[in-house]
Amino acid sequence: MSASGRGIFTNPFTSLLFDVIHIEPPLPGKEKQSIEQLKAAIGSGRRQPIPNDSQPATRNSQTSCFLFEPLVLGAGGMLMYDAEPLDKMISICRKNNILTIADEVMTGFGRTGKLFATEYLENQPDIICLSKGITGGFMPLGLTVCTEEIYQAFYSDDRAKTFFHGHSYTANPLACAAANASLDLVEKKGFKQSLKRIQSRHVAFAKKLVRNPKIENVRTRGTILAFDLKTKDATSYLNKERARIYDFFIERGILLRPLGNTIYVMPPYCITENELAFVYAEISRFADSLLS
């Protein structure tokens, strides 16, 4: 909670949260600003200036890690950015001996068009956090994967050095079985074809949405389609349009979870052409109703 964005979800716990440094995501047009903020954060605890990117650095920074959602910020409003600036930021961290942690809870298992969003990057993170798609949403399961170097740092025959932290349902057999079944589906030939099919349909539908003057910031990434409604209030989770959007679609048998005035579609990969066409048709009907 401390590392995530501060807002209505964390306000009740403000007094309990520890301080972290938040930097702007490298959204289009803000890439340089984000990179400079990262350098400043790394340099805040250093005894020497940050070296040039070509020079390796020793670990003398108070910054322990760089945590990020790769390419798509989910709860932040389905905000999307390119791989290139993130690659640059990971490279800077690596040269300063700072761990990088990718939150792929939402983006993992095909959601961005590749199995993991980090596959768009040249520089890979040290740790990846996974959930949701790992079981196809059937059972709750979280997984943390790491590099061999980090694994070896914990590995020991001395039981006193064991990483004992856990909870009652760690490695729950039923959840793990669901994950194995879900991963079997991922390995089937039709999996990648479904991703490409949904992605191409999203791109085609997005071209129609941009014609509506009441809609802005239409964006797609893999099987994610998102856009914002133009309203008098600022785009945010608390935007009053949320209730109207949700009610409209639930009455038509479509489960959408708008983030305020941001509408996004993240269909299951098994969705049929007819079902997807139905979703698009109802979105078009809702968009057209904004013009009346």
Low-confidence stretches: 47-51, 53-60
What is the approximate shape? Answer: globular
Strand order of the largest sheet: 1-4-5-6
Structural class: alpha/beta
Quaternary organization: single chain
Instruction: Count up the domains.
Output: 2
CATH architecture of the largest domain: 3-Layer(aba) Sandwich
Reading the helices and strands in chain order gives HEEEHEEEHHHEEHEH
Helix count, per DSSP? 7
Specify the biggest β-sheet: 4 strands, mixed
Q: How much of the polypeptide forms β-strand, as a percent range?
A: 5-15%
The CATH topology of the largest domain corresponds to Aspartate Aminotransferase, domain 2
Radius of gyration: 21 Å
Strand-helix topology:
Layout: H1 31-43, E1 65-68, E2 72-73, E3 79-80, H2 83-95, E4 99-103, E5 127-130, E6 143-146, H3 148-154, H4 173-186, H5 190-209, E7 215-221, E8 224-229, H6 241-250, E9 262-265, H7 273-289
Helix pairs in contact: 1-2
